[in-house]
Amino acid sequence: MTIMEAIRNRRSIRTFKAGAKVSDSQIKVLLEAAMLAPSACNSRPWEFVVIKDRNILEQIRKAHPYTGMLKTASLAIVIIALPEIQEKVSGGLPKGFYPQDCGAATENILLAAMEMGLGTCWCGVYPHSRMIAKIQKILATDKLPFNIIAIGVPDESPAARGMYEEEKVTWI
Ligand SMILES: Cc1cc2nc3c(=O)[nH]c(=O)nc-3n(C[C@H](O)[C@H](O)[C@H](O)COP(=O)(O)O)c2cc1C
User: For domain 10-154, which CATH number applies: 2.60.40.10, 3.40.109.10, 3.40.630.30, 3.40.50.1970?
Assistant: First the structure.
């Protein structure tokens, strides 16, 4: 699969094959993809929590109203943002760029998963403070949860969107 094929065919998957196994070596490839994303001054303001524990997946599903797909997902990766790192690196030059960096890491996971025949759904947490607090409580951390990426073997095949909107483009 080429990168453009992955980009063109990626869709959010909200029904997965329940009980399907995703191996740790597959998960590590997804994490490697995330860690290879560009970041401001190469500050890499991220950490990752891999959740395979069904009890914790259920707690998140109940706490976050738009994570129903966790019921059938094989796992979730929570991206943790580290804003404070960016205040220390390169004299604070990358300060404040962490949402962009974590977004790039997220998209790398989504596209790498496509190549592996896995489906994903990006579920937002940051910047909603109530949602952040709920996820912090479940994960017993005071670090900043950026999002939750549901991952599994797709049990649905939504059509590629095939979207190109010329009116969104200014050619100069
Ligand atoms: C920042 C962000 C937050 C999102 N949060 C959720 C979410 O909480 N639950 C969900 O089911 N989908 C979520 N999505 C997925 C979007 O709904 C989805 O990407 C969009 O509708 C386009 O559909 P597609 O991903 O199939 O192309 C989120 C996507 C982004 C980028």
Answer: 3.40.109.10
